[in-house]
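Hi team,

Below is the intake form for LytR family transcriptional regulator from Nocardioides alpinus. Please confirm the fields before the structure is written into the shared record.

FORM ID: S-0412
PROTEIN: LytR family transcriptional regulator
ORGANISM: Nocardioides alpinus
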Amino acid sequence: MADRPQGSGVPEKGTPEYDWLYGGKSQSPPGDATQQVPTQGAAPQGQRPDETRVMPVARREARGSGGQPPGGTRTASAAPPPRPAPKKRRWRPRFRLGLIPLLLLLVLVYLAGVPLYHWTQIDKVDAEPSGDRPGDQPGTNYLIVGSDKADDLTDEQREVLQTGERGGTNTDTIIVLHTGSGGRTMMSIPRDTLAEVPGEGTQMINAAFQIGGPPLLVASVEGLTGIHIDHYVELGFGSVINTVDAFGGVEICPKQDMVDPRARLDIKKGCQQVDGLTALGYSRSRYVTALSDLDRVARQREVISALGDEALSPWTFINPVRYWRINAAAADSIRVDEGMNPFDMGRFALAMTGDSQTCTMPNLPAPSDPNRIIADPDRAPALFNAIIEDSTVPKRACTPTGRAR
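The structure came back. Fields below:
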């Protein structure tokens, strides 16, 4: 390059500025001159000394802080292993897992719902008497009354029984059913029993029902026995017929051939399955056997107990049609006191099933009329008191006909 004139702002030859700008023969570059950093050690084979090299990658923990993690030097932990890919699940229908509990729930709803629905169809009556009554007693006492209520019969059933519509003004069945710690006791009071009917003097006890209905009958039974009646249950003709037919019949065991045109009854001796009309005639017949009404009350308890046995059959609950028909038949021809609730009705139904002591009130022929009876003054109090005190009934006081053995 041609020399530039001196004094034109160009560094003079021999000065450090001149040597820095144009190069010089000086052996030692100025202190602020750019110097080449010598390579440490021998270059690897095949690599030039000035070749650009790849710097090692700094660890993740050391970035952003001059190569040092905050808080000083730390030992880096190994990176977590990669998570395995989630496995595909096989689709399974969930409803299968809950099918059995669902079915059980539906069964329970049906078993509880059907009686509750038919409970709303049952007639309620005022059965609480006025005046002085026995105080509350342990256990529960139900007064079961079988009336001639026939307005729930079909035309065909009325034709067979040769009866018209009746509102239930007479009763052939009076039973005290006791439940408690002393066990179940079913005691019949024959309808021909002479008793004091409040306001009416001494009458046959079934006259109380005809004169004053349920309240007067309850008062007469309480006055005769001293037993406090907690609940009243009235069954009509149709209750027996339709309930027996809803069960598909019941078993009875007459001890002799029975032919009674008045009861439309013609059956042979021995255990047999009968329909509702035959069961009703069997429980009402009184002109075939020697003890008349005393034998009849025993047969009434037999039919009621047979219904209880059928009610306990598993088929009653397994067959929904049968279960519906039984509840419908009972609701159509039963009346209960106004103080009864569905739970009381359920306890009554349970009390009608299972083992019970069955008795007729201990009795004697009435001195004034041999066709009437009275409570035996020597033996009847033992039976009455056992029920009142909720204790075990003495076997001596509990006989099928009420007569001493």
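SUMMARY LINE: The mean pLDDT is 80.

Thanks, M.
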